[in-house]
Specification:
about 625 residues; mainly beta; eleven-stranded parallel β-sheet; ten-stranded parallel β-sheet; 54 strands
Length: about 625
């Protein structure tokens, strides 16, 4: 009964929130980059900054609205002051202006700066400097967005000179070594400058339809921070920030009715963070983290899609997509009742949905959880009464995790309706995580409820993603050997360890193969989400592609006579006619074993012997 009452309370909050939008606003202030802060704030004479607009309305005793028009604005805007959090206030809406298509105008709050003024440093190729003052508590971040490269902080200027994509500052100048030696301006390099876009200390305030980017200067900053009861951020997006959206605390108080709704984050350390809030709601959000060189350095427990932490209590996490985070949804907070339902949590590392302790009233249902070591964390801590059921759980990265989770759920009499099967997404390679019509996640619940956040594809869905292809060769062909040198300065067990000069790659390149035979067997693997592999083409050497033929996982071909090396390529199409990119292997025909080109060189000391030699062909040794 408590869960049903809570659901009704949450629904009532959303109805109340919608009613706010129908209020007649007592004061409306327009903001535009082309305006002036001495203007009255009318649509014809807008002010220039959000700071000014907030100052004009924050203390008014009537509902107010701030409308931001298209453009780029600076952040670090406080709506109210910390002392204001407990004071009841009329509604305030801070929103992007409506666009002609019914969406929002492109309103951006930017916490970064460019490095266009950086000048070359004499005698240090690829190194540039720009005047810069950095607070000791706010470490800078530098990046190249187009190349998706994030710079590393170096020890000193000498280290910057040695390592591309690095930086260091001396109190007066920021020194950067760009990734390819071109100027920061040519590469579009950026640097963090501000910590936070907007902080709401004022009750009954909503932020809607804005974009936030480059708020990285403080580990606890980001896009929007809610720090008063009855505050909401909705329909907003964040890129390249620490915490995209957060509901934070006032020491000694639990703040209620804080909501993060229909928001999106990309390349942020954390999607939504909640601390010191009671019954906060994170709903219908899309949080995506791509795990590449552009990732913001952070500890694994910071890389979380949705995190409730410390004094946070109760809460609703519903309808969210979390992709790529170390932890998908992590409830590391007060042991209390949570509703975690209809989320799609994918492609992470450690835990999909987790609690440090499971409350007997917590409900975790209708979720899709795939690609984590532990789909459900701490399953041994599950207690009687907790509901972890009607979930789709798949692709665990830990060998015994699925069995352990299943056994522990059954121990407390839950989980009998979970399914352990691939969810059948429409086009995950293209970021489409809707469900195909034959997905086992559809209508899984007792009343026909679906698993996941996104539902099924519509009748207009068309498969446009090609198959994923793997390509190797069968025996007697083998991978060609690698080359390298491993130098031990001293015994690794005796003070100082070892000095790894160059990694010795025993496997060589995945593309390089050797065979003594005139024919090779092609092993062609192909996976397709929405269809099936249907056709393939093969090319031998640099000639034309062969005719399309039915897909086969194994096919034998003859290598050309007399060719020391032959390129063999394959491409596969699905039953919708989507052809994959070509996969190519290079095959060397060896009529005899490899031979030494010169005499071996022997390195010896008291700790051992290293033999170095060179052969006339790649080989394993």
């Amino acid at each position: 009964m408590l869960r049903e009452n809570w659901a009704r309370v949450v629904s009532s909050l959303f109805v109340a929130c919608a009613a706010v939008c129908r209020l007649s606003w007592g004061a409306t202030v327009h903001v535009s980059p082309s305006g002036k802060d001495t203007n009255p704030g009318s649509e014809a004479q807008p002010v220039a900054t959000l700071h000014k607009a907030v100052a004009m309305v924050v203390d008014k005793q009537e509902p107010c609205e701030i409308i931001l028009h298209k453009g780029v604005y600076r952040g670090e805007v406080n709506v109210g002051q910390q002392k204001d959090w407990a004071q009841a206030r009329p509604s305030l809406l801070i929103t992007a202006a409506k666009a002609p298509d019914g969406g929002f105008e492109d309103v951006v709050l930017d916490g970064g700066r460019d490095l266009d003024a950086a000048e070359p440093v004499a005698g240090k190729p690829g190194v540039y400097r720009v005047a810069c003052s950095v607070s000791g508590s706010r470490q800078p971040h530098i990046w190249e967005a187009a190349a998706r490269i994030r710079y590393s902080c170096a020890a000193d200027l000498a280290a910057v000179e040695l390592f591309p994509a690095s930086f260091w500052w001396d109190g007066n100048y920021m020194y950067v070594h760009t990734s390819d030696g071109r100027s920061p301006k040519a590469l579009g390099a950026g640097m963090s400058d501000q910590a936070q876009a907007i902080c709401l200390w004022r009750q009954n305030t909503t932020v809607r339809g804005l974009r936030f980017r480059n708020f990285l200067s403080w580990n606890y900053g980001g896009g929007v921070t809610l720090r008063a009861p009855n505050t909401t951020v909705e329909d907003c997006s964040a890129w390249n920030c620490m915490r995209a959206f957060q509901a934070s605390y006032i020491t000694g108080h639990l703040l209620e009715n804080m909501r993060i709704l229909r928001c999106r984050s990309d390349d942020c350390v954390m999607g939504a963070y909640v601390e010191g809030a009671k019954r906060a709601v994170v709903q219908d959000c899309r949080f995506i983290l791509k795990r590449d060189r552009f990732m913001i350095p952070a500890g694994p427990q910071q890389q979380v899609g949705v995190k409730f932490y410390a004094s946070a209590t109760e809460g609703v996490v519903r309808g969210n997509l979390c992709v790529g985070f170390t932890d998908g949804i992590f409830l590391k907070c007060v042991n209390s009742e949570f509703i975690v339902e209809n989320n799609t949590v994918l492609d992470g590392v450690t835990q999909g949905v987790g609690c440090t302790s499971w409350n007997p009233k917590t409900v975790c249902r209708y979720n899709i959880i795939t690609g984590f070591a532990w789909p459900i964390s701490c399953p041994g801590a599950l207690t009687d009464g907790a509901v972890v059921d009607y979930n789709c759980i798949w692709a665990s990265l830990e060998s015994n995790a699925l069995q352990k989770c299943r056994d522990d759920m059954l121990r407390v009499k839950t989980g009998t309706h979970n399914i352990y099967v691939a969810p059948r997404f429409a086009s995950p390679g293209a970021g489409d995580y809707r469900l195909l019509p034959d997905s086992p996640c559809l209508k899984i619940g007792p009343k026909g409820e679906n698993c996941g956040a996104l539902g099924a594809v519509g009748p207009d869905f068309r498969d446009t993603e090609p198959p994923r292809v793997t390509f190797t060769l069968g025996p007697p062909a083998k991978r060609a050997g690698g080359s390298g040198e491993l130098y031990f300065e001293r015994d690794p067990w005796l003070g100082g360890g070892r000095n790894l000069v160059r990694d010795l790659d025993g496997g060589g390149s995945e593309q390089d193969w050797v065979t003594p035979a005139a024919k090779v067997g092609l092993l062609v693997g192909a996976e397709d989400d929405a269809g099936r592999p249907a056709q393939m083409k093969i090319r031998v050497g640099q000639g034309p592609w062969g005719a399309a033929e039915p897909y086969a996982s194994y096919k034998t071909i003859a290598l050309p006579d007399g060719a020391p090396m032959t390129a063999v390529s394959v491409t596969v199409a699905d039953d919708s006619g989507n052809w994959s990119a070509a996969k190519t292997l290079f095959v060397r025909r060896l009529s005899s074993g490899p031979k030494l080109k010169t005499a071996p060189v022997v390195y010896a000391n008291d700790n051992g012997v290293v033999v170095s030699f060179e052969t006339d062909a790649p080989c394993l040794a």
